Amino acid sequence: MQKPTTNRGASHDPTIETERESELRQSDILPHYRRNFLAFLGELTLFSVGLVFASTTTVLPDFVSRLTGSAVFVGLIISLSEGAWRLPQLIFAYLLTNKHPKKPWLTRAGMVGRPSYLLYAIALGLGLSRLPTLGLALFFLLHCLFYINLALDSVVWWDVFGKAIPAPKRGRLLGLSTAVRGILSVGAGYLIARLLAENGPSFPFNYVVIFSLSGFFLLLSLTSWTFIVEPEEPVEEKRPPWKNYLSQLLGILRHDHAFRRLLIVRLLAGFDGLALGLYVLFGLKELGLPPTALGLFVGVQTVGNALAGAGFGMLSERVGIDWVIRLATATSLTAPLVAIAFRLHGFADGSGGSIIYSWIFLAIGVFRSAHAIGFSNYALELAPTGQRGTYIGLFNTICGLTVVWPAVGGWMLEVTSYTTLFVVTAGLLSVACVSSLWLPPIRRPHLLPRVGTPPR
């Protein structure tokens, strides 16, 4: 059966089509809505907690540094993670164009990728750390295996999510998951700190526990995924030739003005990465804030992410996803502005300098919570039936361009100054804020069809 295709051009009203598609789908979705809501909530929350124990910004860099002492290999972690996750998504989206159901493909990918850190924990426990070269090679092999499978995971997850959860309820689910996993992440962070403390288990047995916990939660999340009921949806009988698929991608970029505007806003908002890894360095080394402030920054960022997740979930449901993106981007702008204020005027720590400076990390947490609730959710809403995987794959692949900004920011700091870095970051984020004003609304709450209480 040929799937319906739609190009959203300037003369097309995305609000009307999205609402009409939502109304037509709800009769099929509601019989399993409660079950799917809880299953997605469990899967997403448990998966996110698993990633806390394998964080690419804290846990894994510390492990690789202890294993090898090489800053080069530490720097490879984020680059390989982002590349292995983002780049294959368009290929996987193409391969899945004529596949239904899609749910089993995530299950298979999860069975291959999600045990990766658990397998590495077993290898560490058997003495792999005594062979650093082999230990490093196996780490990057399993790490990339996880993220390559995560690329397939992401394409399928958003496709099934778009079919199984009604549009008006998606923001609520994503926001609730962000809030719950934020609370659980505080406990996970405390446990990690105890395991890595001087009076904790010795290396590498502390990481045997950490990687085992990561694998446990990742596999537990896969169990929750199995309870999801994927609704029926027509797909292509035959996968189109790759040349035709590339033409389709170009057609989306050429004719779907709302999607193109979303990409522009996200790429501009991604300039926050210029200073993202340097706020801590500036606060501790330039401003002289006490080392204990680092714990405050981590806690504030986690709490900001959790609270914003809950708030953005309600905002997307009541006002619209476009306003989630605007508010998150505006909040992100305040981070370099606060840093500039400290650079120009400074605050003595005795007068609450650490507390005031922690606003930067609150802003980072708020913006990160909008990645799924705002940007990805907006792309999902724009996607016509049958093309969700293509839209999400295209969006994530193009947004991979933002990966270079942290390295560019480090280079800028070496050749200029913190003041220049923060001013440039603030200027580019200001452009992002202005460009977000031109995002068209996806839906108007007062036009949405009323939905009764779903059957249990």
Description of the molecule:
This protein has helices at 14-29, 33-52, 59-68, 71-86, 89-95, 103-113, 116-125, 132-164, 167-196, 205-225, 242-255, 257-269, 273-276, 279-286, 293-318, 321-344, 353-357, 359-382, 388-399, 405-415, 418-436. With 456 residues, it is an all-alpha fold. The two termini are 32 Å apart.
Q: What fraction, in percent, of the residue positions are helical?
A: over 70%
Number of strands: 0
The number of domains is: 2
Total helix count? 21
Whole-Å distance between the termini?
Answer: 32 Å
* Average of the residue pLDDT scores: 82
Based on Cα principal axes, name the global outline: globular
Sketch the topology as an H/E string, one letter per element. Answer: HHHHHHHHHHHHHHHHHHHHH
Profile the largest sheet: none
Radius of gyration, taken over Cα atoms and rounded to an integer in Å: 22 Å
Assembly level: single chain
Which structural class do the helices and strands define? mainly alpha
- Classified by CATH, the class of the largest domain is Mainly Alpha
CATH architecture of the largest domain: Up-down Bundle
CATH topology tier name of the largest domain? Growth Hormone, Chain: A
CATH homologous superfamily (4th level) name of the largest domain: MFS general substrate transporter like domains
- What portion of the residues fall into strands of 2 or more residues? under 5%
- Low-confidence spans: 1-29, 444-456
